[in-house]
Amino acid sequence: MADFLAMNGYAAYIWPSYAVFFIVLAIDAIAPRLRRKRVLAEIRGKLQRRQSREATP
Amino acid sequence: MNPLVLWFHKIGSPPTFYRIAGALAPWCFGIAIVLGAIGLYGGLVLAPRDYQQGDAYRIIFIHVPCAWMSLFTYGFMAINAFIALVWRIKLSEILAMASAPVGAAFTFITLVTGSLWGKPMWGTWWTWDARLTSELVLLFLYLGVIGLYSAIDDKRKAARAASFLALIGIINIPIVHFSVNWWNTLHQGSTVRLMGPSKISGDMLWPLLTMALATHIWFFASLFARTRVGLLELEGGKDWARDVALADAARNDTVKVHG
Asked: Which of B40, B53, B100, B147 is found 20 to 30 A from B7 (Cα to Cα)?
């Protein structure tokens, strides 16, 4: 296991590469989820404002 | 209208595509992660060391698939940008704009992992080699498309302006691809070829191709998730989008009550 992690001296280049790969793709997967929440809240907000405008004469 | 055109119109309508993409996205994410795990196990554990580059070559299993994706994504974006400009199809505008951040992510990974590979192999993090420079220009093109789209408030006009930029940027794609043949610089030539035999052994090739498949499927997973949000944003005033927003609120309330 230690041998595997050491990558014969190239660990300092290989593992950061894989870290960047996983971190960037994790952000890529999370970003649309967060934006979706914001967009849905915006749609509900607009709907609410319109309904309260129509309710008050 | 003939049945094919009718089918195309149905698939292309925002609420229908929203539903289909919602059903496909989780499967794509799941398959991409499983294939990625298999490919990386093959690449990091099973594949033998390279006789010249030692274990450093193992960066290839993420660097090369991401580099292929940086070009594939641009092609996908440009095709949709073209359809958006010529036929003004809403879905194509959103597909083109949704692919730009995914392409930027893959291009960024390509540049960083390439740099981390270049240091032990070439002795430098960066050099103004033709392949490296054109890949950097590719990242700037993606960022330009994203920036232009977000700078214009009218999203349909924004998509057309950014699509135009995406189409002009196509000129860079053959430059990236052929740069290692056209200029004799530091970056090594193609190892895997569609025409003729690849210059790589089988136990290195299958993890590489598995990773390539995984990243392609990941692209579509991310694209579907982003396209869904883009469609909701563009059609926020329509009944179907309101229904989605209200159903989402109702689901959150249930979770709060029972959780």
From this structure: B100
For residues B80-104, b (16+ Cβ closer than 10 Å) or e, as one string?
bbbbbbeeebbbbbbbbbbbbbbbb
Q: What is the pLDDT of residues B124-133, one digit of tens each?
A: 999 898 999 9
Using an 8 Å Cβ cutoff, are B139 and B169 in contact?
A: no
CB contact under 8 A, B62 and A29: no
Question: Exposed, middle or buried: residue B38 (CB in 10 Å: 0-12, 13-18, 19+)?
Answer: middle
In a mutational test of the B interface, the residue from A15, A37, A40 whose CB has the highest number of chain B CBs within 10 Å is A40
Structural domain includes residue B9: no
For residue B71, give how far its alpha carbon lies from the nearest alpha carbon of chain A (Å): 17
Q: Which residue bears the tokens 């440009």?
A: B78
**pLDDT at site B11:** 79
Enclosing domain of residue B248: 27-258
Q: What is the ipTM of this complex?
A: 0.91
Task: Note the pTM of the prediction, 2 decimals.
Answer: 0.93
Residue B161 scores a pLDDT above 80: yes
Number of domains in chain B: 1
State which residues form the domain around A24: 2-55
How many domains does chain A fold into? 1
